[in-house]
Amino acid sequence: MKKLFFIFLVSLSLFSFALPLSTSIVNALKTGNSGELAKFMEASIDLSIPGNEGAFSKTQSELILKNFFEKNTPSAFKIMHNGDAKNNTHYTIGNLTTTTGVYRVYILYKDSSTLNTILELRIEKDE
Hints:
33% of the residues lie in helices and 45% in strands.
């Protein structure tokens, strides 16, 4: 019985880890490539960046991010934390280093069989 309980705990712990964010999304953030980032967005996402916040279409979000990246050219993105959220979604928190400073990035996404789909993206000045 103890052996069965141990196996159950080990298998449960293997499935409780958050699925990692796609390397393509990480690279798009590192390089400030809003077009590549938009490929992973839901048709409408919640977007929050300094000076702009709301629910936007994929196209609007791409243009807003392009403008942001032109003013704040990224040089690095480092993942600080991954986790699971409600309704079979996951999140990643990271630091985006740009020419104007460091920003905290929060990405809420769902995982389908082949790719991550961004539901929410928040970029805030790290203070």
